[in-house]
Write a structure and sequence with these properties.
Number of domains: 2
Structural class: alpha/beta
CATH class of the largest domain: Alpha Beta
Strand order of the largest sheet: 7-5-2-9-1-10-14-18-19
Bound molecules: guanosine-5'-diphosphate, 6-O-phosphoryl inosine monophosphate, magnesium ion
Number of strands: 19
Mean pLDDT: 94
CATH topology of the largest domain: Adenylosuccinate Synthetase, Chain A, domain 1
Helix content: 25-40%
Shape: globular
Length: about 450
Amino acid sequence: MAYRSISISEFLITMANVIIMGAQWGDEGKGKIVDLLTEQADVVVRFQGGHNAGHTLVVEGKKYVLHLIPSGILHAKLCVIGNGVVLDPSALLQELQELDNHGISITGANFKISPITQLIMPYHRELDVAREKRKGKGKIGTTGRGIGPAYEDKVARRGIRLGDLYNRQIFEAKLQDNLAYHNFMLENFYNAGTFTMETIRDDYLRMADTIAPFVDDVPVILANAMDAGQAVLFEGAQGTMLDVDHGTYPFVTSSSVIAGGACSGAGVGPTRIHQVLGVAKAYTTRVGSGPFPTELTDAVGEHLFKVGQELGASTGRARRCGWFDAVVLRHAARVNGLTGLAITKLDVLDGIPSLKVCVAYNRNGRRLENMPSDPSILDVCEPIYEELPGWSEATSGIERMEDLPKNARDYLAFLESVTGVPTRIVSTGPDRKQTIILDNPFG
Ligand code: GDP
Ligand code: IMO
Ligand code: MG
């Protein structure tokens, strides 16, 4: 296999404007990969989702968990929140405070938010929780942070945007309208608590003052940066299988997670994107309900959970674990136009004698190579596995492909062959340094 390990700067020469996104069900290690590549980027942008995301970065042994602020902030790069995000101002202020406690200073010079970003309001959180309660067993297992209801208000054309907070009259009128509607639903349909205008208004206006220095015209900032030859990284949240259209609907989040979402969620044309890097674990995890064909409930699943420390970075919930699913990856490659893969957590597979990779599904005797458009079909699908030998050596912290055990290299080569996407990065531990960067084997 003609792999060549290269330096980060050599790698980034081939990249300019890059979307980094989750190729599975979230928590693939996007935060680490964005943090790693930010060294050579000029701007890092969040374009969808909200504080449902939890991106973990480990730098020289110190752990940071970011929810809303792009992972590039640790490099003092310009960090931007685009219009596709749903913003809870109280979550933002809390995160700013936490970063400040770590000695990371954030000012209007290194952090920008689009004024057309939709706001998460307190009634969105209440609705999220009330709705899940009402669904009972059929619940989605949301993060309970008001993400879905905020996106619903956006497309219903009644949402309140960050910029509205700077026009008191408009803000009050919109808030009044929204409360009339949502209080009615909360009280009469969900039998849940209601909200008063004054408390929300005063809270949000107070927070608006603190956020004001960050509000700026994001599409203009990004276009100017790109015109000046700067490199822009788009940091995806969640993962392809949680995309509102292309994921396992309805067990998804409410945003456009896929690469195309970066353009609409930041105000950038698709012609300006050069690379789309998909991040995938060397196995699979998922938090919350919904189909998961390669899920393991045996000792191997327990190994992945324990060794991979698979507890959610946002909600602390246990992540479900299973084998690598190439059907998922081929789907992700297609809908995102992946130009490369970053495979993370290879080290978690150390010591498992035999590894399985799902290459297709068996649906009542019929072989499915592609993700079915109706995800409920997944409930009756059995994974078709190929089995590969594991390795007993530790791969943790290895920085060069040639230092990996042969079986680990063969496993990676197999993933590449069944996904059809070249591997550009292999992560062998949570720290920035525990990474193998590869030349493009496809030339
Ligand atoms: P994200 O949401 O995609 O940014 O991922 P999370 O931060 O939610 O979850 C990934 C977890 O795996 C974090 O705790 C990371 O520190 C950790 N991690 C990332 N890459 C590796 C790796 O290669 N090996 C190990 N053992 N842990 C990793
Ligand atoms: P990062 O960016 C994993 C899941 C929730 C739930 C579904 C809908 O860290 O990869 P929502 O609150 O968004 O309406 O919940 O989506 N989910 C995630 N799972 N990682 C995430 O983010 C997630 N964000 C949402 O568990 O199943
Ligand atoms: Mg996460």
